[in-house]
Amino acid sequence: MARRRKLINNTNIPQYEIEKIARILLPDIQAYYESEEGQREFAEWKAAQDRQKTDECEKQ
Length: 60
Hints:
Elements: H1 15-34, H2 36-59
Helix pairs in contact: 1-2
C-alpha cells in the first residue's frame, strides 16, 4: 500500500485552492517543456548546473 506524503502548506491559502491552481497551470507548464524553446532552455539550465557542480568539485 502506497503512503501518501503529507503536504507542507505554510500559508493561509487552503490546500484545495493550491491544488486547483496547480491543475490549471500544469498543462501549460508541460506544453512549454515539451516545446522546442522549453527543451533549449532546459538544456541551457542543465549545462549551467553541470558547470557549477564541476566548479565546486575543482575548488575542493
